[in-house]
Specification:
Layout (H helix, E strand, L loop, with lengths): L1 E4 L9 H13 L4 E4 L3 E4 L6 H10 L3 E7 L16 E7 L2 E5 L3 E5 L4 E4 L5 E5 L3 E7 L2
Antiparallel strand pairs: 1-8, 2-3, 3-4, 4-10, 5-8, 5-10, 6-7, 6-9
Length: about 140
């Protein structure tokens, strides 16, 4: 199951805030991930001020920052999560393929809810950044 809220919050995280968050994660040896050539994940997005407000609004605890600096970068591919996830598209455009049949395109400020166990694949159509949030 999934649900999309268009223009949920247009006061999105910008590239500077994303890069600073990722840099702080690296400096403090927090868990990070990257795939060559240009997909990055920081598990410290809850530290970004704009994200704190969204976490509170969605009653979530955890936030992860995802960004691609090129559309050629490998992401996670088709997968399912073990928890309900909200994803806030902050910059760029992504195409989401859900359950191998539904397609949704997200733009700046859009929010998608994806229930646990729902297969999805996120494809960056432009360099992009977004925040994934969950309660667990």
């Amino acid at each position: 199951m999934f649900e999309v809220k268009r223009k949920y919050n247009l006061d999105t995280v910008n590239w500077d805030e994303a890069f600073l968050n990722y840099d702080e994660s690296v400096k403090s040896n927090k868990q990070i991930k990257y795939n060559y050539p240009g997909f990055y994940v920081s598990h410290e997005a809850h530290e970004i001020e704009k994200v704190k407000h969204v976490l509170k609004n969605l009653d979530c605890t955890y936030a992860h920052l995802y960004f691609n600096i090129t559309t050629e970068a490998e992401t996670f591919g088709k997968h399912k999560d073990v928890m309900d996830v909200w994803f806030w598209q902050c910059r760029g455009i992504t195409k989401w393929i859900l359950n191998e049949k539904d397609e949704v395109t997200l733009y700046d400020g859009d929010l998608i809810y994806v229930s646990k166990g729902t297969y999805h694949n996120v494809i960056p159509l432009r360099p992009r950044l977004g925040i994934s949030m969950s309660k667990e």
